[in-house]
Amino acid sequence: LMLGSVRGFQGRQLEALGNFALAARLDPGNPRIAAALGMALYQAGRTDEGGAQLAQALKLAPDFPGIREFL
Fold first, then answer.
1. How far apart are the first and last CA of the chain?
2. DSSP of the chain, one letter per residue?
3. 34's torsion region: left (phi>0), alpha (psi -120 to 50) or beta?
4. How far apart are CA 24 and CA 31, in angstroms?
5. How confident is the model over 32-58, as pLDDT tens digits?
6. CA 61 – CA 33 distance, rounded (Å)
7. Residue 69, Cβ density class (10 Å: 0-12 exposed, 13-18 middle, ≥19 buried)
8. What is the pTM of this model?
């Protein structure tokens, strides 16, 4: 999760997306990872997949802050 965030801040969006996708596979029940992957997918123009990941984050943590605005 942290490496993906760093890559995103560096403007290395594809690497960030790969890091978040790996983290999601390793810890599928983590709402922070699902949200980070969803946001990275949105930034990559993959809005349908991003929306699905953000919905997953809300399913895992219904009170997760800031996610509802993107759905």
1. 22
2. -HHHHHHHHTT-HHHHHHHHHHHHHH-TT-HHHHHHHHHHHHHTT-HHHHHHHHHHHHHH-TT-TT-GGG-
3. alpha
4. 9
5. 999 999 989 988 899 999 999 999 999
6. 11
7. exposed
8. 0.83
